[in-house]
Amino acid sequence: MYKPFLEKMCPMNIKSVPVALVGEALTSGVSPLYELHQVACELPLNVLSDVKQRIGDWLASGGKETDPYIKKTSRVCTESLPGIERG
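The structure assignment produced for this chain is given below.
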């Protein structure tokens, strides 16, 4: 009774996902953006603002959260924390 109505309102648009992407998601464990989120409060405001702008521009231009650029940006931020002077 409701099936034809639901099919019209919510057509099944299932697309295949590349195997490499699935494998990366399963093996990486934590997304680079989550890692960055965990240390954001420890970063200086000007650094955080710059990183936010860069990542936003990257995603707006069609990049993905799992791209090497995002991973590198996150890694640089998390690795630089011990070197940041707090005060």
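Interim note for the steering committee: The chain has a mean pLDDT of 75. Residues 77 and 83 are 10 Å apart (CA to CA).
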